[in-house]
Amino acid sequence: MKKLALISCSLCVFWLSACSGGEENTSSSTESEETVEESKEAQAESETLPEQDDSEETEESTETEEPEYDDTEPLTGEGTNDISPYRPMAVMVNNHPLARPQTGLSDADIVYEVLTEGDTTRFLAVFQSEQPDEIGPVRSSRGYFIDLAEGYDSLYVTHGWSPEAKQMLRSGSVPFLNGLFHDGTLFKRSTERQAPHDSYISFDDAMEGLTNKGYEVEREVNGNSFEEGGFSSAASSQADEVDIWYRDKYVVQFTYDEDDQVYERSSDNEETIDKSTNEQVAVKNVFVVEAPHRVVDDKGRRQINLSTGGEGLLLQNGEALTVQWKNEGGRLLPMKDGEEIPFAPGKTWINVVPSSSGITGSVQGIE
Questions:
Q1: Within this chain, domains 83-212 and 237-364 share the same CATH topology
Q2: 83-212, which class in CATH?
Q3: Taking the model in full, what pTM does it have?
Q4: Binning pLDDT at 50, 70 and 90, where does residue 63 land?
Q5: What angle do CA 132, 86, 137 make, to 5 degrees?
C-alpha cells in the first residue's frame, strides 16, 4: 500500500510541474521524467512480487493430500481406520407407498430390491460399516431374501414371515430376530404410520435381541472386490438417467450426479429420501440382474431362481456395462468373459427383475 501511495504522489508532482513550467523548465521536466521512471520501476516491482506470493499461496491452498487409512470396509471398499467388529445385519425394509420415506437406507452398504407379491418391491438392506439409530419400516421375510442374507453371513432381521420363510428360519439357516416376538419392546411402532408400515428397530436394539438369543454377532467379514474408479471398458455405454421397470407398473430411476459421482435413486418419479437425513439416497454402483420368477400360491407369493446366473447390467460413473451375473456363495456378482468385474468403492444397489421382461425390456435410458 505504501508503494502504491508513493506512485500516486509522484505522478501528481509530474503533472503539476508540466502544467506550470512548460517547455522552458527543462530541469524540472528531467527530474520529473526520472521520478516517473523510478515510479514505473517501483510499480513493476510492487506488481510482480505480490503476484508471486499470491500464486504460491493459491498453489499451496489447492494442494490436498489424500487421506491414508489403515483398513478397507469389506462391503463398500472405502478406506477406514475403524472397521466394525459386527457381522453384517440384513434387514427387511418395506417399500409400499405408505411406508415411504424409509429410514436408514442411506447407511446400508448393499440394498437388494426384489418383487414380493403384486407389483411392489421390497428391500433387503445390508448394514455393516454403519449402524443407524433407526431402520424401517421393517417388513416380513421371503425365502429368497433369506438366501441373499446368508450370502453375506448376515444376522437377519424381519417382522413376520411367509410359510416358506418360517420353515427356513426355524430350521436354523440364518440367525434371526423377528418382530412378531418383540413387538413393542425391541421393535417400536411409529404413531405416524399405520400397520403394517409402522415397525422400526435400531441397530443397537437388534444387536441386543440377537445377542440375547445366543448368536455370535462379531465375526470377520469377507469383502467384495473393488477397484478405484470402477470398471474400464470400451464396451460401456452412457447411462446418465436410467429407468428400471417392474412389470410396467412400477419404475425405479437412477440419475447420475457428475459432481458427487453417484447415482441418486427415485421411484415412481419421486426422490427416495432417507427420513433420518432428509436427503436423497445415492449409491456408487447400480447392478441390475434378470432372474426367473414364478408365482407359487393364491397370495401371489413368488419363487425366484437366484442360483443359476444370467444377464446383467452394471452402472458406474455414468456408464453402463453389459455383464453376466453369478451366484458366488450366495452373493450376486458381476462377471464379464469369465472374470469378476469389481465394484467401485462405495455403496451398491442391486435390482432383480423378472427374466420374462429381461434387461432389454426392463431397463431404459442406456445410450
A1: yes
A2: alpha beta
A3: 0.82
A4: low
A5: 35
